Amino acid sequence: MRVTREVVVTAAPTALWALLWDVPRMVACVPGCTEAREVEAQRRYAARMRQKVGPIALSVPLEVDILEAEPPRRIALRARGRDPVIGAEISMRVTLVCEPRDGGTALSIDADGQVLGKLGGLGHGVIQRKAEEAVDEFAARIASAASG
To answer: For residues 93 and 79, what is the distance between their CA atoms, to the nearest angstrom?
Structure first.
């Protein structure tokens, strides 16, 4: 699955950049994220995602690694995890790019991921729709958090 979106926020790039590194505020912005903690400052994080996809509910502990960070412009991360109950494996790479735009910032979101196991058997269309909904909700929440 792959989802790309762009959202324009009223915050300056440096303010948006600070928000992207604020773990408690990001937990509130990421749909299904119930907890997150910093393992190694701006390099490694642990998180938990809870989602329902079709008839399947999952709770996935994630390891999140920052692959690249170019302040205040670009972050690339990889998140991986496995739901121990249903055996679903999730792997995703997300790139966020901040560009100044008309007194605010355009945030480009590029998410590319794989879902394996029982959940992956639901079919690409169901998983793609759920991924698009999650990225759209993230974009709306980040815009709200950045402006408030």
So the answer is: 6
